[in-house]
Amino acid sequence: xxxxxxxxxxxxxxxxxxxxxxxxxxxxxxxxxxxxxxxxxxxxxxxxxxxxxxxxxxxxxxxxxxxxxxxxxxxxxxxxxxxxxxxxxxxxxxxxxxxxxxxxxxxxxxxxxxxxxxxxxxxxxxxxxxxxxxxxxxxxxxxxxxxxxxxxxxxxxxxxxxxxxxxxxxxxxxxxxxxxxxxxxxxxxxxxxxxxxxxxxxxxxxxxxx
Length: 210
Ligand code: SAH
Description:
Elements: H1 3-16, H2 22-30, E1 51-54, E2 57-59, H3 62-73, E3 81-85, H4 91-97, E4 102-107, H5 110-122, E5 128-132, E6 145-150, H6 159-163, E7 165-176, E8 180-187, E9 192-200
Parallel strand pairs: 3-4, 3-6, 4-5, 6-7
Antiparallel strand pairs: 1-2, 7-8, 8-9
Bound molecules: S-adenosyl-L-homocysteine.
S-adenosyl-L-homocysteine binds at residues 57-60, 85-86, 88-89, 91-92, 106-109, 112, 134-136, 151-152, 203, 205-206.
């Protein structure tokens, strides 16, 4: 079966599982996930599962990518600047780059960052800035962000990231250890509003650059 057909089937599954945002579904339909995994894993690229990408890290499950992106976007204007922590394979970055004006993506493992960067450039996604660094520190240069999405799990919501949110901005982040929960924090003029969502499973967010 061609990659376009298996990709379409994946999108049908995401729809069945409750993803409604057509822009998110379209971005996922347009993005060749098999190019973000090794050749050995490529045959599984359109199954709805996380897959190893080396360095003990994983490319996120498509459903989780779709859900988090939907939560980041829902009920608001298209975010201008989005900070992503945990570039990994670059797949989530590719989806974001099609939906927001500019993506600022931080990855602590240099090898992963370099291969993600190469792949994203190959796909002509050029509205992305990259940093090899520690996402716990955020990226002060370009703050404040309209959205921040974190794809590794810290034990608690890092205050540094909250500080870098614009008023009206939204943080989507998995929090916990063995059990994790997806949290959404929105910044208003007067403070932060927090809500909790699905249980998720991400690799731990690790302090410091690798
Ligand atoms: N969104 C990625 C997920 C990769 S897994 C994808 O779908 O491919 C999570 C990534 O977060 C790993 O690459 C890991 O190295 C990175 N990471 C963990 N802690 C980090 C930190 N403090 N700063 C930046 N990146 C971090």
